[in-house]
Amino acid sequence: MPKVVQRIERAEEGVIDGLGRCGVATVHEAQGRIGLLGSRLRPIYPGARIAGSAVTISAPPGDNWMIHVAIEQINPGDILVLAPTSSCEDGYFGDLLATSAMARGCRGLVIDAGVRDVRDLTEMGFPVWSKAIFAQGTVKATLGSVNVPIVCAGAAIEPGDVIVADDDGVCVVRRADAASVLEKAQAREAAEESKRRRLAAGELGLDIYDMRGKLAAMGLTYE
Amino acid sequence: MPKVVQRIERAEEGVIDGLGRCGVATVHEAQGRIGLLGSRLRPIYPGARIAGSAVTISAPPGDNWMIHVAIEQINPGDILVLAPTSSCEDGYFGDLLATSAMARGCRGLVIDAGVRDVRDLTEMGFPVWSKAIFAQGTVKATLGSVNVPIVCAGAAIEPGDVIVADDDGVCVVRRADAASVLEKAQAREAAEESKRRRLAAGELGLDIYDMRGKLAAMGLTYE
Amino acid sequence: MPKVVQRIERAEEGVIDGLGRCGVATVHEAQGRIGLLGSRLRPIYPGARIAGSAVTISAPPGDNWMIHVAIEQINPGDILVLAPTSSCEDGYFGDLLATSAMARGCRGLVIDAGVRDVRDLTEMGFPVWSKAIFAQGTVKATLGSVNVPIVCAGAAIEPGDVIVADDDGVCVVRRADAASVLEKAQAREAAEESKRRRLAAGELGLDIYDMRGKLAAMGLTYE
Amino acid sequence: MPKVVQRIERAEEGVIDGLGRCGVATVHEAQGRIGLLGSRLRPIYPGARIAGSAVTISAPPGDNWMIHVAIEQINPGDILVLAPTSSCEDGYFGDLLATSAMARGCRGLVIDAGVRDVRDLTEMGFPVWSKAIFAQGTVKATLGSVNVPIVCAGAAIEPGDVIVADDDGVCVVRRADAASVLEKAQAREAAEESKRRRLAAGELGLDIYDMRGKLAAMGLTYE
Amino acid sequence: MPKVVQRIERAEEGVIDGLGRCGVATVHEAQGRIGLLGSRLRPIYPGARIAGSAVTISAPPGDNWMIHVAIEQINPGDILVLAPTSSCEDGYFGDLLATSAMARGCRGLVIDAGVRDVRDLTEMGFPVWSKAIFAQGTVKATLGSVNVPIVCAGAAIEPGDVIVADDDGVCVVRRADAASVLEKAQAREAAEESKRRRLAAGELGLDIYDMRGKLAAMGLTYE
Amino acid sequence: MPKVVQRIERAEEGVIDGLGRCGVATVHEAQGRIGLLGSRLRPIYPGARIAGSAVTISAPPGDNWMIHVAIEQINPGDILVLAPTSSCEDGYFGDLLATSAMARGCRGLVIDAGVRDVRDLTEMGFPVWSKAIFAQGTVKATLGSVNVPIVCAGAAIEPGDVIVADDDGVCVVRRADAASVLEKAQAREAAEESKRRRLAAGELGLDIYDMRGKLAAMGLTYE
Question: Fewer Cβ atoms within 10 Å of its own Cβ: the N or the C terminal residue of chain B?
Answer without folding.
Answer: C
